Amino acid sequence: MFEGAREVKYILNVLDLLVDIRRPVPVFCGNQGAIHLASNYVNNSRSKHIKARNMYIRELIKAKETEALYTGTANNTSAIMTKPLALPIFRMQRERLGVTSLHRDDH
Fold this sequence. Notes:
Helix content: 40-55%
Shape: flat
Number of helices: 5
Low-confidence stretches: none
Order of helices and strands: HEHHEHH
Mean pLDDT: 82
Number of strands: 2
Structural class: mainly alpha
Distance between the termini: 33 Å
C-alpha cells in the first residue's frame, strides 16, 4: 500500500500544475489489517514498531490526499499473481489481464 500511496502523491504533485484533481484519491488494498493501521492511529505494544512508511500513509490519509479502500480477492487483479484462486475467479482475473489460455477446452 505504501508504494501505491507514494505514487498517488507523486502524480498529484505533477497533475496539480495542470488540472484540479478530486481528492481523496482511492488506493485499493487487499489487506484489511494494513488499511486499519493506516487509517487509525493506534499506540500499543503491538503497534510500537510501525515503520515510517506507514506513518507517511497515515499523513496522506489525514490530509485527505488519499483514502485506503478494501478490495476483495474477486476484485483484486493482482491476486492472480500472489495466491491460489478458485477456477472461476482465476479465469475472470486472467481475462482482465488480457491473457488467453493455450488449451481449447479452457474457457
